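#struct-help
A.M.: can someone run this one for me? Single chain, 384 residues.
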Amino acid sequence: MTTKILQKLRPLDFPECSKQAINYLVSCFSSDDHGSLPGLSGAPENLAQDVARDYILFTSQNQRGHRRLNAIQELHMLEMLSTAIDEISQGSRYKLFNVIFGGKHEPVKTSLLTKLVSLALSVRCGAVLDCAALWMQEQGCHSDGVCKLAHSLVEEYCMLYPSVSEAFHGLPKVSPLFTCNFISAAVTIFYFNDNHNIPPLGLLDAITDWISSDSCLCFESVRLVRIQSSFSCPVFGLFRWCILGHLVTACNHDKKIDMETSTKTFALLSKLHLCILQNLQAYKSMELNQILFHLQDFISIATAVRQCCQNWKISEDNFYMLIERIGQVLQVAIVTESLKIDQVTGTEGLKELCSILPPNRLLKIIYNHHSQRGNQHFQPMDTS
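D.P.: on it. Structure tokens below:
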């Protein structure tokens, strides 16, 4: 049986139909008693999803068909959604957001969400960005939908104009969780393992600035592990940038990176490496106790470094500097317990790691210490 709210909305045109639909959803999720929602004759969630689908996303199969909003109407819709999400109580905010944008991936839904997040970023609407951050975490920051959203933001804010906007640079102050999950998606999109996967310089600069200003930023998602079934942490992806990114920039075998860009990239990657060490030390003080690395991560990085050095021309100084970076991050990861290795498999893994790379004093110390003392802690490393 058709519900009262759908009967009420059906004869209305845009924007009134969408305005009434949003108001209805707000009333639904602002109510403590979901069994007595206005116009309700069925399950609350199903009805709310029907209203969102028919009069916000316009993807229903009723007589209105797949209505397409023009650019001005779409902007009006985004403003209404942004205002509603911002003004609803914090406890109900994500319920409203999720009934519209949650569930399976749909092109219309993803397109509207991307534009809403872009608008929220430009006007510094933390409520929308916080909801988007939770959505990213539920979807998985490495999923296609999240990566498409992040890539659109990178194109708009880091590639469209010569310099990155102040709004983008100020993102962590508006929504630290969104920033953390955005970085996780960014290191997935831009693998930095060849000249075709290089992050824009503006993005690299912004991320380096973000995590140098806030040593806990990369762990915002980990903070939610008590209430979320999963978390994302971009630290390993950033570590990969520091190693493989340096190789790609140094080799520049396609000559796609000019000298000025190379110089800036080297400087940013060096700063990023130090930030990672400092961030891991900060993580120890947060007492979150989640594993951020696996020994296989370091083995895969070492293997990639060896292969790159075999295929590309790279100076000996650069090569040994990268090995030293691997050893430094490995040691600090063990000290801070963001990497935990047991005595048997850990010893074998460290032995494999050392066999992949040329002899290195720091790696040898780590291996000897672990093989002799099992799981005892290393002395903290001075990264000042």
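A.M.: thanks! The CA atoms of residues 368 and 379 lie 14 Å apart.
D.P.: also worth noting: The longest helix spans residues 259-286.
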